Amino acid sequence: MKTTLSVIKADVGSIGGHIQPSKRLLEAVRKHVATEGRGLVTDSYISYTGDDIAILMTHSRGKGNEKIHQLAWDAFVAGTRVAKEQGLYGAGQDLLKDSFSGNVKGLGPAVAELDFDERPNEPFLFFAADKTDPGAYNLPLYLAFTDPMYNSGLILSPAMSQGFRFVIMDVSCTEGDRVVELNAPEDMYDIAALLRDNQRFVVEAIYSRTSGEVVVSVSTTRLHNIAGKYTGKDDPVMLVRVQGAFPATGEVLAPFNIGHYVAGFMRGSHTGPLMPVRSNSGISYFDGPPVVSCQAFCVSKGILTEPADAFDHPYWDFVRTKVSQKATDIRAQGFSGVSMLHYGELEYGGIVEKMKKLENMFKVRA
Ligand code: F6R
Ligand code: MG
Ligand code: MG
Questions:
Q1: Of ligand 1's atoms, which has the minimum distance to the CA of residue 17?
Q2: CA 364 to CA 366: how far, in whole Å?
Q3: Among protein residues, the one whose CA lies closest to atom 10 of ligand 1
Q4: In sequence order, which residues have a C-beta less than 8 Å from that of residue 313 and are 6 or more positions away?
């Protein structure tokens, strides 16, 4: 049976700053999807990570389906109404265009979709990150899909021995989707050469080379490419099919114990370690740290199980403590050097004006 998983997420308002949505806002989104989605989606699940609400839907209409995207858009519009009523901060923030036009891509919300023939009791993972950008998934995906130090299945499972095909997007290109396809293991150094630059090159999808099946889909939206100015970090979502011929759940989760430094944090303009958190967690220290949640599901004939919260385990408490230390350490140097992003990635335009003024004050000494 063909199943499509579509996850569409947006920040449409938050309590007390950019930290988490209200219960009423979540309920409005949930209610809209439950009532208007009848006969359209097979199943759905609504959750939040930081200030972002994610609508996960199963259906059989394929990727980029107008009706599915419209449903999510309208749910966020309904949510925005409640956010405005309640006086939530940043109400409707990620709905960058006034009206829906065919597909939410380019309108503000982030989208990741997978379309596949269901395996029996198909397991998959849904990741959502806040206060960071899509490049945050580059390193964990590289390690989980190419490195036997993280993915023992690359050695132990014949179904994975041919490796994986990476589709990598140049997100600096605003004319269209500029992509390259590279194969692991033979192109590993080329893949690494691209993926080291998290702000420019982003994994969009990964395919099994054994079966040709799609395994991973990442949202690649860059909000500032759409709005032309700062409107929040991109806060990416990702879907990963797991087990059997694909990495095991634990192999995909393993690299998240690094708490690697990513772009985002306060004002989308800093460097901070990516902390794995429980789903439905808010944001705190220095509008961060950047966080990622992971819900594990099985889907059978389009029906979802309840989620298992993959980062809700004592092991990840240990990781969170370690990552907190990394966050404290880099914050100790404030604005200096690598702790703040380089000029082109700073999300607030004010610095441009400041630099212009300062430029004019410089004099070359005779
Ligand atoms: C980062 C983020 C926050 C805000 C910060 C200032 O993605 O959402 O760190 O940038 O709280 O917010 P404003 O400019 O709305 O006062
Ligand atoms: Mg957010
Ligand atoms: Mg936000």
A1: 11
A2: 6
A3: 267
A4: none
Residue from 191, 45, 4, 15 nearest 128 by CA? 45
Cis peptide before 185 (omega within 30 of 0): yes
Euclidean distance between CA atoms 28 and 17, whole angstroms: 20
Query: What percent of the chain clears pLDDT 70, i.e. is strictly above it?
Result: 97
Q: Which of ligand 1's atoms lies nearest the C-alpha of 89?
A: 15
Tokens of 334: 């404030």
Are residues 190 and 182 in contact, defined by beta-carbon separation less than 8 angstroms?
yes
257-282: average pLDDT: 97
19 CB less than 6 Å from ligand 1? no
Express each pLDDT in 220-264 by its tens digit.
Answer: 977 666 666 656 668 999 999 999 999 999 999 999 999 999 999
Residue 349 near ligand 1, beta carbon < 6 Å: no
Catalytic residues: 11, 230, 233
User: What confidence tens digit (pLDDT) does each residue in 120-144 have?
Assistant: 989 999 999 999 999 999 999 999 9
Q: What is the dihedral of CA 279, 265, 197, 192, to 10 degrees?
A: -40
Each residue of 162-198: b (16+ CB within 10 Å) or e? ebbbbbbbebeeeeeeeeeebbbbebbeebeebbeeb
CB 232 near ligand 1, within 6 Å: yes
Strand 237-241 to 201-208 pairing: unpaired
Distance 146 CA to ligand 2 centre (A): 29
